[in-house]
Write a structure and sequence with these properties.
The complex is a heterodimer of chains A (about 100) and B (about 200). Chain A is mainly α. Chain A is built from three helices and no strands. With about 200 residues, chain B is mainly alpha-helical. Classes of the chains: A mainly alpha (about 100), B mainly alpha (about 200). Chain B: It catalyses: a quinone + NADH + 5 H(+)(in) = a quinol + NAD(+) + 4 H(+)(out).
Chain lengths: ~100, ~200
């Protein structure tokens, strides 16, 4: 396990996440793609912290912040899904052309 | 930080598992299965974090993602077509473009990982990751940590506002009325008109 292999794994997760976020029609699946991307970002940050940053605590702090971003993304995403579903009975991205209720 | 052969083998197995389950998320034909595949991918990454000595974050990842994927699975069943996965499912648009974008971002990031020179400063042997993180959160970076907390509070308020049935500016009694026993009937559980002496009554 080297920093390069950890970063390669993170790159693979981010690549799959990009594919998922762009290709999926359903809002919830789209959010899964975003989650996968953030997963890769967290792994890369921890890899840098452990192997390149001499254990500087800011590396872990950055990961905590990405975790908070993940929680925010999930919560707001689900709330938006509820709001859109209530307004338009839609759960796929093609069904809405704008975000106006 | 020295890594033994066991750690290396474990890392490779977990890496392959994380990528495979992450890919299966968008290839399986059941929504609930998709969220559990994502959970498996997160757990594999959490174990890798443990291997990298990030003890607190690895364990936090298990707990957070366990709950998050349960919520995800519930939402899947609530909102999606074909929730139980009884029909073959392929719900994608701009498929080629997405594959291209995914491959391009992987190639770009992998090239950076392979070609760039990163400094080699591994963890010192005497580092205590959890204590170091705690001291950082409650010391130098407290303002950042607290601002994250305020953003989370704002998120909670925003989520309630967005998902509330009434919205922010509904009428006062809207949403507070119980539904009728039969369609269009009187609200259930309300006292009769004549029993209510002199009180205001708004259920018409």
């Amino acid at each position: 396990m080297t920093l390069t292999t950890v970063l390669l794994l993170a790159a693979a997760l981010i690549g799959i996440g990009v594919y998922g976020a762009l290709s999926q029609q359903s809002f919830v699946m789209l959010m899964m793609g975003l989650e996968l991307m953030l997963n890769g970002v967290m792994l890369a940050a921890i890899g840098f912290w452990a192997m390149s940053g001499a254990g500087a605590p800011e590396g872990q702090l950055l990961t905590i912040l990405v975790m908070a971003v993940m929680a925010i993304e999930m919560a707001m995403g689900f709330a938006l899904v509820v709001a859109v579903y209530r307004g338009k009975q839609a759960d796929v991205t093609e069904s809405i052309a704008d975000l106006k209720g | 930080m020295k890594t033994s052969i066991v750690v290396d083998v474990a890392f490779w197995l977990l890496a392959v598992f994380a990528v495979y389950t992450g890919w299966r998320v968008f290839r399986t034909d059941s929504m609930v299965r998709a969220s559990f595949f994502l959970l498996l991918s997160f757990i594999a990454v959490g174990v890798i974090m443990l291997l990298l000595s990030a003890v607190y974050l690895g364990v936090a990842m298990f707990f957070m993602m366990g709950v998050e994927m349960m919520v995800m699975a519930l939402f899947m069943v609530m909102f999606m077509m074909n929730p139980a996965g009884l029909n073959p499912m392929m719900m994608v648009h701009q498929h080629r473009l997405s594959i291209g974008a995914g491959v391009a971002s992987f190639v770009m990031l992998a090239a950076m990982a392979l070609l760039a020179e990163f400094p080699r400063h591994p963890l010192p042997n005497d580092v205590q990751p959890v204590a170091a993180l705690g001291n950082e959160l409650m010391g130098e970076s407290m303002l950042i940590f607290e601002s994250a907390a305020v953003v989370l509070l704002a998120t909670m308020i925003g989520v309630v506002v967005l998902s509330s049935q009434r919205g922010r500016f509904g009428s006062a009694e809207q949403g507070s009325m119980p539904p009728g026993l039969e369609p269009g009937g009187d609200p259930a559980g309300m006292p009769d008109e004549d029993e209510q002496a002199g009180g205001h009554h708004h259920c018409h």
